[in-house]
Amino acid sequence: MKHSIPSVLTIAGTDPTGGAGIQADLKAFQEREVYGMSVVTSVIAQNTLGVQGVEHLPTQFIEQQMESVLTDISPDVIKTGMVASAGMMEVIAETIKRYSIRYVIDPVMIAKSGDHLMNADAKQTMIDQLIPLATVVTPNIPEAEVLLSESIHSLADAEDAARRIVHELGANAAVVKGGHHVEGDAIDVLYDGSAIHRFPTARIATKHTHGTGCTYSAVITAELAKGYSIYDSVHTAKKFITDAIRYSLQIGKGNGPTNHWGHRLQGIPEVNGRVLK
Ligand SMILES: Nc1ncnc2c1ncn2[C@@H]1O[C@H](COP(=O)(O)OP(=O)(O)O)[C@@H](O)[C@H]1O
Ligand SMILES: Cc1ncc(COP(=O)(O)OP(=O)(O)O)c(N)n1
């Protein structure tokens, strides 16, 4: 049954500190005013300092969660984040095909803390089974390098990578995110199958970028669900994440989370990264 309110489903791992994974996705969905649902793939003991433990749910139980949602409420768009194993990827791919739902894949591989969130032997399954189903794929630079087995050093390399993810790996569109360049502006590049689009912002000097990629792809998912184009969805996501980083909350002992309501604080002055009210 189709619902009048745009609805979205994230299939991902958890972050008990709320900055990344499913918790970040649900916060972003709420801020973008779409109805958010979630299927858990792995339960992670992590915080702003890193990952302390991982428990993967059985593949069959991930499948059961997806069935529970999809036989009741049909999301307009599905997003995947952390999907650790080839077996999990296979059941997710089969489900997306069976229900024929638009799909955003954030190909999460390694957290910024350096912890591995995807098994190395799952890479080929991601390439063969998930990426070709994607309406949009949103790798950061290290992830694009792994997907294409090539190094990315420049903006031209990132643009070439986005083109290759579409033409060689079969995604409908690709955004290569610019957060991992050490210098210069944070420039994301979108290739939509016909043209390259650049989304530049000044790089914000902060260590509080935990969960940026999760939040960004969740906003793209939400905007697509509302009926916006891929270009407009990426544009909104870039604006949203920039405010979320700019107004970050300065919490946690390590790389803190972003502020999911930062977009509501635009124009409010800040001092040393703290918002003045
Ligand atoms: N220091 C920063 N200043 C401004 N934008 C940033 C910064 N770090 C990341 N971003 C933006 O956050 C989004 C996520 O990027 P990135 O950090 O590359 O992804 P991930 O979290 O998957 O590693 C992108 O839009 C990127 O441009
Ligand atoms: C459960 C879970 N999923 C994804 C990530 C990675 O998040 P990301 O948005 O790429 O940002 P970092 O956390 O790597 O800074 C995660 N940590 N946990």
UniProtKB/TrEMBL annotation:
Q: Which CDD domains match?
A: HMPP_kinase
Q: Which reaction does it catalyse?
A: 4-amino-5-hydroxymethyl-2-methylpyrimidine + ATP = 4-amino-2-methyl-5-(phosphooxymethyl)pyrimidine + ADP + H(+); 4-amino-2-methyl-5-(phosphooxymethyl)pyrimidine + ATP = 4-amino-2-methyl-5-(diphosphooxymethyl)pyrimidine + ADP
Q: Which InterPro entries match?
A: HMP/HMP-P_kinase_dom, PM/HMP-P_kinase-1, Ribokinase-like
Pyridoxamine kinase/Phosphomethylpyrimidine kinase domain ranges (all copies): 15-259
Top EC group: transferase
**Keyword terms, alphabetized:** ATP-binding, Kinase, Nucleotide-binding, Thiamine biosynthesis, Transferase
Q: What is its EC number?
A: 2.7.1.49, 2.7.4.7
Q: Can you cite a GO biological process for this protein?
A: thiamine biosynthetic process
Choose one Gene Ontology CC annotation of this protein and give it: cytosol
Q: List the Gene Ontology MF annotations in alphabetical order.
A: ATP binding; hydroxymethylpyrimidine kinase activity; phosphomethylpyrimidine kinase activity
Q: In which pathway does it act?
A: Cofactor biosynthesis; thiamine diphosphate biosynthesis; 4-amino-2-methyl-5-diphosphomethylpyrimidine from 5-amino-1-(5-phospho-D-ribosyl)imidazole: step 3/3; Cofactor biosynthesis; thiamine diphosphate biosynthesis; 4-amino-2-methyl-5-diphosphomethylpyrimidine from 5-amino-1-(5-phospho-D-ribosyl)imidazole: step 2/3
Spell out the Gene3D superfamilies in the cross-references: 3.40.1190.20
SUPFAM superfamilies for this protein: Ribokinase-like
Give the protein family.
Answer: Belongs to the ThiD family.
Quote the NCBIfam families the UniProt record gives.
Answer: HMP-P_kinase
Query: What's the name of the protein?
Result: Hydroxymethylpyrimidine/phosphomethylpyrimidine kinase
> Which species is this UniProt entry from?
Virgibacillus phasianinus
